[in-house]
Amino acid sequence: MTEIIQEMPDHRHGTCWVNRDWGWCYVNIPKNGSNTFKEILKYRGFSEGNFNDESLENFKSFTVLRDPVERYISAYLEILDRYLEKHARLPDRYPLPCAFISDPTLSMLNRFDEFLQISEFALFDEHIQQQSWFLRQADGQHFQFDAVFNLETLNRDWHQFLARWKLSLPSELPRRYTSRRSDEQRTLRRQIYNSPSLLSRIRNLYLADIKLHTDHSLLLRT
């Protein structure tokens, strides 16, 4: 059974971005367009807060969800880019041995499989942590939202959101943080999607996220 680590080294549980003048907050989830939103919001009166430290029940709120399989693959590739290309190693704060990731004798698919085995033991990095973890309050209940977007339909959802709430925010979202993938990485993605066993293992890690991604009513304020 996968261990759900309660504290992430680079992301404090309950982190959100709050505009107290507008009465709005955004709960950010890594790998779900969070860098784009934080860049936009910090210039429009939003500052970092925490829904565990202050009562935000009367604030309007929104968040972004993503297909869990695609998010996991994207997170794996980012970890490769961030730590192996730039530092040739994974950080010491990782609680599990990950040296095999840089082993040149292993194929990309075999390295991914090894990484998945570690994830099945513990979700040790905020980029692979369950999305539901970021939305769960101290009492175990999910934070309640006025709007929930899917990253896959973000532009459409965002335009509908602005039309409804009339917020003074950009109508077009920049894609400044889109990663460039190598042919090898694109091949890896195809191999994963062509492997029913790998897909099943990833989905088993994120059963709660799959449910939230397909049924926003579980998170929307009633």
Written description of the protein model:
The chain is built from 8 helices and 5 strands. Strands 3-1-2-4-5 form a 5-stranded mixed β-sheet, with helices on both faces. It starts with 14 loop residues before the first strand and ends in an 8-residue tail after the last helix. It is 40% helix and 10% strand. The N terminus is likely disordered. It has one domain. The radius of gyration is 18 Å and the shape is globular. It has 222 residues and is α/β, with parallel strands linked by helices.
In short:
It contains eight helices and five strands, in the order ββαββαααβαααα. The chain has 222 residues and is an alpha/beta fold. It has one domain.
Class by alpha and beta content: alpha/beta
Mean pLDDT: 87
Number of strands: 5
- Read across the widest sheet, the strand sequence of neighbours is 3-1-2-4-5
Count of all domains: 1
Distance between the termini: 33 Å
Order of H and E elements = EEHEEHHHEHHHH
Helix content bin: 25-40%
Strand fraction equals 5-15%
- Overall body shape: globular
Query: Helical element count?
Result: 8
How would you sum up the major sheet?
A: 5 strands, mixed
State the low-pLDDT regions, or none.
1-5
Q: What is Rg?
A: 18 Å
Write the layout of secondary structure elements.
Elements: E1 15-19, E2 24-27, H1 34-41, E3 47-50, E4 60-65, H2 68-87, H3 108-121, H4 131-135, E5 147-150, H5 154-165, H6 183-193, H7 196-205, H8 207-214
Parallel strand pairs: 2-4, 4-5
Antiparallel strand pairs: 1-2, 1-3
